[in-house]
Design brief:
199 residues; mainly alpha; Arc Repressor Mutant, subunit A; Tetracycline Repressor, domain 2
């Protein structure tokens, strides 16, 4: 047996366990929030001891970090080598696709609200996340303005803030009544007033 085959099993098992723990973390943090979730409950759902879980995630903060990284990985959309308008279209389409993972939407709503407290372990993460979203969206809208595709009724920076607030609010309403809200359609309607090329 080669060294490669002898180590592949343990590594694969560890990766699978971490993946399952993160999935449970997404569910728990999304439903109970950071403060309401415990590592003990994660371990129980995995069918293992707390000590065993702590070999992979020493504390709740380390699991939270892994959960947020996984959320970002799933949310990432590659827009390289595409026009700004095409990239924006992809981001809008992602709103519908994200509905297939309601736990991640719950995670955003619950943790972002909790993290307004400076003492919350995810405070810095969400502070930076929103700053990055505002900057990236403003740059995209500024490019569209330069191309003559953005209505002069608003500024790129202002539109960026409004769109982020709109998406957050619509996703919260969708979680409360999924049959009453079409997040993608509402965002398209809003953006069309400022960017006619968006339908």
């Amino acid at each position: 047996m080669t060294a490669t085959t002898s180590t592949r099993g343990p590594y694969a098992k560890t990766a699978k366990l971490r993946s399952r723990a993160i999935a449970i973390g997404i569910e728990l943090f999304g439903s109970a929030g950071y403060n309401g979730a415990t590592l003990t409950e994660v371990a129980d759902r995995l069918g293992m001891s707390l000590t065993g879980l702590q070999h992979h995630f020493p504390d709740k903060d380390s699991l939270l970090t892994a959960v947020l990284e996984e959320r970002d990985r799933r949310d990432a959309v590659r827009i390289e080598n595409r026009s700004t308008l095409d990239g924006l279209e992809n981001l809008i389409l992602m709103l519908s696709e994200s509905e297939a993972s309601p736990g991640l939407i719950e995670l955003q709503c619950v943790l972002a609200a909790e993290a307004t407290s400076a003492e919350h372990p995810a405070h810095g993460y969400f502070q930076q996340r929103y700053a990055t979203l505002r900057d990236e969206a403003a740059r995209a809208f500024a490019e569209l303005a330069e191309q003559g595709q953005l209505s002069p009724a608003t500024t790129p920076a202002s539109l960026a803030k409004m769109v982020i607030a709109l998406v957050d609010g619509l996703q919260l309403q969708w979680l409360l009544d999924r049959g009453a809200v079409d997040v993608e359609a509402e965002v398209r309607t809003f953006l069309h007033a400022f960017i006619p090329a968006i339908h």
